[in-house]
Design brief:
60 residues; mainly alpha; 4 helices; 0% strand
Length: 60
């Protein structure tokens, strides 16, 4: 099996039921995780998700 990057990650998130509710597109979820792992606080991640209205606690 060949590595397909982001598409493989999205597929695994769905298969393992990590993303249970899909109110937020998986691409946005992955972007938020990337920002958080890059050192931003949850509040910082929330402010960078322009157009996506989520509470700070909903992000984690």
């Amino acid at each position: 099996m060949e590595w397909d990057g982001i598409e493989d990650i999205k597929r695994l998130l769905k298969e393992k039921h990590i993303v249970q509710r899909e109110r937020t597109p998986i691409d946005i979820i992955l972007y938020a995780v990337f920002l958080y792992l890059g050192g931003l606080s949850l509040k910082g991640v929330k402010t960078r998700l322009i157009g996506i209205t989520r509470s700070r606690t909903a992000i984690w």
